[in-house]
Design brief:
Radius of gyration: 15 Å
Distance between the termini: 43 Å
Bound molecules: zinc ion
Number of strands: 7
Strand content: 35-45%
Largest sheet: 3 strands, antiparallel
Order of helices and strands: HEEEEHEEEH
Number of helices: 3
């Protein structure tokens, strides 16, 4: 089946983020800290040019900050976790003994919009 260009771009973006996804215990990939591009609205810390940044409305967020924010707002039961799904979507999954079931898709904008100041 032939894929359209837009899908390929999303797929590449997803692969890139997935490649950079940090699993506890895994060695963290190196981030170029020579260039600070902005401040993270959640923690106030410096944001570097990092492909794992979550970008919403042209505002850059730390990936970990977004994950922690989601985890603080949704109540996770035992065996549930938050995974990055791609294209600014996360999912709540149920995970046990290598089996994963997607429970709910989360649009990151629902959580980040309050951090993005709109000047209309
Ligand atoms: Zn942050």
């Amino acid at each position: 089946m032939k894929r359209r260009g837009a899908l390929d771009k999303r797929e590449r973006e997803h692969r890139q983020k997935e490649k950079n996804f940090k699993v506890p215990g895994e060695i963290r990939f190196l981030v170029d800290r020579s260039e600070i591009i902005s401040k993270c609205p959640i923690c106030g810390g410096d944001v570097y040019k990092d492909p794992s940044n979550i970008v919403f409305d042209d505002v850059h967020f730390h990936f970990d900050c977004v994950v922690n924010l989601i985890k603080s707002k949704v109540e996770l039961s035992e065996n549930q976790n938050v995974y990055y799904y791609g294209s600014n979507n996360f999912t709540i999954v149920w995970e046990r003994k290598g089996k994963i079931e997607v429970l709910k898709r989360i649009r990151v904008g629902d959580f980040l919009s309050e951090y993005v100041k709109k000047t209309v």
